[in-house]
Amino acid sequence: MNAYSEDVVAVPVGTTLDRFIKRQQQASPAATGELSQLLRDIALAAKIVQREISRAGLLAVTGSFGTENQHGEAQQKLDVIAHIRFLRALRNGGEVAAVVSEEEDQVIHTGNPGSKYVVAIDPLDGSSNIDVNVSIGTIFSIYRRQSQPGTPAVEADFLQGGLQQVAAGYVLYGTSTLLVYTTGQGVNGFTYNSSLGEFFLSHPTLTTPVDGRIYSCNEGNIVDYPLAIQQFITACQQARFTARYIGALIADVHRNLLKGGIYLYPATQAAPAGKLRLLYEGFPMAFLIEQAGGSATDGQQRLLTKPISTLHQRTPLIIGSTQLVDLVTQQNKLLL
Ligand code: AHG
Ligand code: MN
Ligand code: MN
Fold first, then answer.
1. Where does substrate bind (predicted)?
2. Nearest ligand to the C-alpha of residue 130?
3. 17-205: CATH, from 3.40.120.10, 3.30.43.10, 1.20.80.10, 3.30.540.10
């Protein structure tokens, strides 16, 4: 790990997220501070969700913690709680005109039509891990809206395509809580210190190995996978790669980002267009992994250039170390 980030400005490890955001803003003369505030709002929501997650076991056992909450959220599932918490932080922060969340079908207007950004989120990713105390996360993606500030944001603001993302990132609630994000100038990761209530720069200028020896997919579905993917996985097994699959996209991609590897969620019989969502899973993770030097495709094309026509559109996803992703693509071409 470098001692200093080579991002816009050199920022030492241990710098608070707040200061880091401020320094990046200062380094970009055109910045108005709105995106900076939006990133702070996301960090605030992440802290609140982290707190909810850390006591989720107690809630389930006793049902008594949080009963003082006037909104009755303690009775709700954690992915709905995360949705509410992020929404509230973005609404109160005032920098977001509208939100699209995995938890709601329609565009959610925040009551801030004058704001120039919109945010797509998967408030809680890997929800099947909640009850078993395994890593989960949040994914976010930020666009500058195309519709005129002052008017209500519209669906088209969210359907601009992956290359138009202004920023994207994830929060991983694991052995520690990590916020990793990009604004298109590299990737930086911040670790949460709960006793101080702050995120600190811990992973400056993250780059992913070009190659790796970890493959991550739900191998139980292998008979359903396209032939090229089946052959790729067999090749991984023959080469004695390590299989690792947590079942939370963020946790799997984060591990592979640090160690080198590939994550695959191809089309299956149960999910012929893939399972993952393009807007708030595929695009943000693809933007971030490309910024870290990796690659992402849907098996046919670079993911970031994949056309999007609906808010909750699904996609196959193959993402990780460039040499491994390229191997899948080549295998695919051989079979076409
Ligand atoms: P979510 O919890 O937001 O619905 O996402 C779960 C996703 C993804 O995070 C994970 O990699 C994948 O679903 C796991 O799916 P399988 O259980 O089919 O392997
Ligand atoms: Mn998800
Ligand atoms: Mn989710």
1. 125-128, 218, 245, 263-265, 275
2. 1
3. 3.30.540.10
